[in-house]
């Protein structure tokens, strides 16, 4: 008898009819002899509706009260899904995050999970019931309700699977799994049967939105196999786990496209030690993640410092940078929206060679200029012109023959 | 410094704008130097919307999950009201029923309050904050969420006032207070400055819908002064308390009109001991409250047993009665909708005399026939034709001069 955690997002439970469909899938899994715990998000747009209700009251609602408000969304979902299971004759019981034993760190709207005892969930499973747990929420040691922020429900599911020692954590989504590249951009994209946590982390961080990086990190930490699969059919998706088949024949797993980038340039920076540190300390203190960075050296003793941030951080970054730019005596602060980042990811790169050369050659053959390059052990990223992103993806995908099924059987 | 509990119902918090108005009133009370705890219901129709959502999933949802679902309604209200108070610069903190320490008996949808520690509420008040508590809900000893059923938020407010040793529990409503009779029926109706718990219980049970009997009972038990007042203006309402001014000069406090009655007649019942017991045991076992009862004796050794139930219990009562009627050999089971109950209530009746005679005389002078009479120490009820109810109310109100202000200053 396997222990299976299944996670369904807001779209999957967006209406009474969809909740009934989710219940049927859960019921089938339980009927096949498995112990099943389910994690659900708030219904469809309900979280957005609650946020807009709060903003009709106050433009800056206290975070504690926002968490109190938002936590109701998942509580509605767990009650309704449990009702739907009862209607199918399947014994089930719902738990809020606090009831399930999700202990959080006290950060109201962006909490981390400190511990997950899952005692009541274990008792329900042992009694032959399906446990339905609210994603995205927990309570701190003082009993205060916290929400987990972005990717919270994925993380709840993976953490629950770790707490239960589950055989697999299934993340149901509106795509079939993890692809070598976004199929909307490259029709030849191929679904991967398996991928490592590290590769998935690079792909997730780089803009492949099927699974939140926090959940992948949690899965890696606790060795939870994560099965990303479609909520529309029963076919297999992609399994994220520690080691994939040794001889899979590919160096690269996938290509990530990221259009959510803005390039910021601090122009004409005097060439003195500590100036780059000053700039990036200011940015870091404002809670802004910097992605690609290059520093170009001019002959006249001045540098340009270029880096990218996500679009929703642009305004904050500019506000933070303006005084710093004056202070260090830089000549100008510029930014551009018309850039995009393309990355190739693969654990095989650690041992394989020639990936960077192949990528640059493919881009060059397509006439695409590279503005910034950044590498890690398992990925290479290039900043290019936004209007060439799709061409770049197709060129690289074809160059590395990613569309051909080379996984071992 | 007074400790004041204020309760606002679903209509008062039915929109963002209304929540902001409630916050202003709470803020004024706190600004006047009082410690304020607020109890709120779910917004407007939100409870009905949750119920209809549940019924789109299942016609018979499990009670536990229904309580899990419905409890979200008040949680939304407390978060939003606390945000509104914060916007006004008033420090406030929200608590769900379980967080506030409402310990319930484990009945999911119709729970009674076993204990109310209110420790976190007390700490918030001591810290100079307004405490905003979810009405209608609590948790049992196992941490299961329960809702309190009808009148639950009123009861939460009065129980909280008892736990805090509050000076007064203010129940905000859409009427100005408790009147001698429904002002829509008798324009001369006068607002009462004070009324005893027992009188209010009779009036509340009899159909004056300003305050739920459970809340009055709780107030009586713990000696909590309850101020029923308007949410539209600052004028005083009616204070419900143990003893009102001794020499108030009135025997009768008010008249209650109840159109929610159906008369059921079990006709031609053999005159044997135990038959009435059989009938009312069956009704009682079905959870149906019987109101007025008369048994009329015929000469031929048969009786008619007449009684009233509320309209929404009619179908269930008939289903329960049909086998019993056959079993005891009664001749027929009949019912009539065109009846109404009018009652006069007054603690002064215990010592005063002539109330029954005056009521019957007033009805006779108006040409109104009495079908059933029932009395308690502080009330007299008559079942009459529904289309004469308003005439009866006006006649009795005039007869006892209830429109004249005779309260001591």
What does it look like?
Two copies of one chain form a homodimer. Chain A has 409 residues and is of the alpha/beta class. Chain A is 35% helix and 26% strand. In chain A, helix 2 (46-57) runs antiparallel to helix 3 (63-87) and helix 9 (275-285) runs antiparallel to helix 10 (314-328). Chain A is globular, with a radius of gyration of 23 Å. In chain A, 50% of the residues are buried. At the A-B interface, helix 1, helix 2 and helix 3 of A face helix 1, helix 2 and helix 3 of B.
Give a brief outline of the structure.
The first copy, chain A, is α/β, with parallel strands linked by helices and 409 residues long. The first copy, chain A, contains twelve helices and 20 strands.
Q: In terms of topology, how is this protein built?
A:
Two copies of one chain form a homodimer.
Chain A: E1 3-8, H1 16-31, E2 35-40, H2 46-57, H3 63-87, E3 92-95, H4 97-100, E4 102-104, E5 113-116, H5 119-126, E6 130-134, E7 137-139, E8 145-147, H6 152-164, E9 168-173, E10 194-196, H7 197-205, H8 213-222, E11 226-230, E12 238-241, E13 254-258, E14 261-270, H9 275-285, E15 293-297, E16 302-310, H10 314-328, E17 332-336, E18 339-345, H11 355-365, E19 372-376, E20 379-385, H12 389-399
Parallel strand pairs in A: 1-2, 1-9, 2-6, 3-6, 9-11, 10-12
Antiparallel strand pairs in A: 4-5, 7-8, 11-12, 13-18, 14-16, 14-17, 15-16, 18-20, 19-20
Helix pairs in contact in A: 1-3, 2-3, 6-8, 7-8, 9-10, 11-12
